[in-house]
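Sharing a chain and its predicted structure for anyone who wants a worked example. Both blocks are below, sequence first, tokens second.
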Amino acid sequence: MTDPLLDRHATEPALRRVYEAAGPYLDSLADRPVHDPATEPLLADLGGAAPLPEKGDGADAVVDRLLRVGTAAATHSAGPRFFHFVIGGVTPAALAADWTASTLDQNAGFRASSALATETESVALRWLRELVGLPESYGGALVASATFANFTSLACATHWWGERHGVDTTADGLAGLPRMPVLSGGYVHASARKALQMLGHGRNSVEVFARDAVGRVDLNALDRRLGELGAPAVVIANAGEVNAGDFDPVDALADIAERHGAWLHVDGAFGLFAAVSPRTAHLVRGIERADSIGCDAHKWLNVPYESGFAFLKEPGRLGATFGMPGAPYLPSADSPRGGYALLGPESSRRARSLPIWATLAAYGRDGHRAMMERHLDLAQRLAGLVDAAAELERLAEVPLCIVCFRARPAGMPEAALDEFNRRLGEALLNDGRVFAGTTVYGGRVALRPAIVNWRTTEADIDLFVDVVRELAARLVT
């Protein structure tokens, strides 16, 4: 029998193995393909269809196996050429702090369970608020993802909406109430729909008002619809559309929401960080008027996954929405030993604040501005390379860090381009040197590389374009 108590001597050697493997692995990211399909058979070494072992192998053997398989077969999304989703890497400070979070293994739900985690979260939230320029009156909580940031925000919107119907939805639910009106432009993201789905409103409850095929908001139509409703409603503004990085006009939507007494939620999953640079801050003008804002720090802040956050204009709504009925062993909401478990969807919570705090403390406002402005420059470089290549076609402007384009080989009919670009996207993922998948933008299949990793350089952008052109040429022949 391998009881953890009897295996405790293996703790330091196992951690040392991870440390010794981490440095070479991270140093190799610039030279590795993003994914090597030849390593996939290694995944069988994780157990495959084998039953749970009766007798474990012990920490030494298991960590060795995990490192051998993981460093080879992982998708190396922490590296500089992963452009597929909007995924940053992990800065050195954030990585070290994440290891610290696992070592300390804090329950960040209550000050009673961890004053360290509670205080770190309070400071990290204040610094995030200052980084994106929100007023001091805003408060928030760290959550697991952009979806949970939208969920948290829209749950508070639901509480607000219920109050206007004379109902405490936290205590009594939605039964007997009409459907909560939710309006947005065509940039509304699937994560906002999923949040509404989980809240019981339904993912199809969103009324979309778009004035063109790519989804730009029709302000006049949305304004008219709010006037027709004559009832409290929720408006979702989208700060950073995922296909081309475009923005809804938040200020104009704030005007409309205020005129009709609507709740304004801003889904700023990655685009909220446009506020950090004077070059792009105009894109999020008006966020300081939003009732709620959702964002995800693992994207452009370059911290580990499960680092979303939500900000509320009326932070007291977090406690009203997520406070739990009392249990004798738990601190109450008004106790000095309470904490963030009562301000968000999760109760027991990992100390996810430590990496956020560490990266903000290590690099400050100037360091993060420099990183983000470097990404803005790299996106413009990529756009220029696309424009210079006769067989590539850019489909949108590049206001931020995403470049939306497609291959357009000479002589290929329009009707064949969508299927060709789908094949090109699959070829890129199968090739593995760089990663960028396909999307549909304005009814056309396209690539949409997002540049948000702190390691990415001009050489990575140039290689990306070279690989795209090489694979496209192969597909043509």
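Comments welcome. The chain has a mean pLDDT of 95.
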